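Can you give me the bound-state structure? Components:
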Amino acid sequence: MRRQLVDCVRFGDVARCSAEQLDHLDGCHGCRDEIGVDQAVVRQVRRALQARVAGRSASPEAFAQIRRRALAESPAALVANAAAPSRPTSRLGRLLQLRTPLRTLAAGSALALIAVVSSGQVAQFSASQHALPAVRWQGLVQTASLPVLEPWNMHRAIGIAPPQRQSGLTAQADAVGVVASLPNLAGPSAAGFFK
Amino acid sequence: MTASRASNDGVSVGTTQTDGLVERMQSGDMEAFEEFFNAYQRPVYATALAITRDPFLAEEILQDCFVTAYRVRERLRRDVSPLPWLQRVTTNLCYTRISRRRRRLTEPLTGLIVNLVADLTARPEQVAESREIIDVLQRGIDALPPKQQTAIVLYYLHGYSLAEAAEIAQCNVGTMKSRIHYALRALRARLPVERRGLVPTSPRLATDELP
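Here's the bound-state model for the whole set.
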């Protein structure tokens, strides 16, 4: 009972103590002393932890270094190294992951398609191609080698010249094909479908 | 919209991400990344420093944490605060660094701590006693297993709820309670009996004084 009472008080759950426990606490000096000691230790631990960080902060150059490191990584390396904040644990999630290479290939091809359609160079590309040559299109500059990318990483495939950094590029892939669109550019919206 | 609250660091730890920072980061806006850094760097650095007690190592961990956040920004959820995830990355980085450091060092870096808590209004002997207690606890915290260290840092330093601390540590609430319990028990065992709760010299706790 003492352990339960100490836990209740320590974690702010006194309201969840049973009437029996509270009655016991009322008459048990040992339990009250134990709770008092626990509270005192917690106070000291808080002070010790606060002493560890008091008056300390990251250096003013911290962000500049982070920025430099973040930008130093190539898009391909970024994609290769990126770890998901959470991994799908369901069977469906794992199945979808298995399909990723096919979907990304299709999504890459869709990007090729929309860029090519917009730049009037349709004839130079086959439907299965997912590596784009340099293409300038509405302020977008395509890098020469396009890695196979997840749909949500497709914007990495194109270096977007400022100030149009927010392309709004979206792509959706399913069993039928891929629809990709670039709705927010200064010019007319573009969309492509790849089957 | 889900309610959010502020931790001891003054940063929202609720489940709602309302300011659109993540969206802007995901579109490649470096200014948004800087805002993101400024919004969350303080609790991240505090966690790293509280666990490692090494300002240089803490800054390295801070950098690694935010570089990682930038790398995976496409996959950060927009509908929840990124702080629990940042804290999880930070604690994992701390585990790695601490295990490396423990292999190299036989003694904790107690010498790095300056300005141990001292109540300047207290008598000199009380100040000395307070410093001694804090010093004992600092060594005790250093000696805790990393998961217990993390538990008390999240719960007692940052003031996260049990559920939030458990989410960051990727365990259930019962496990988090257990880690805190064993950490406190170990720390208490390090204190001389007469310094633990100052019980012999204090009036007993009345039921109505409970928090």
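A couple of observations. Chain B has one domain: 21-197. The radius of gyration of chain B is 19 Å.
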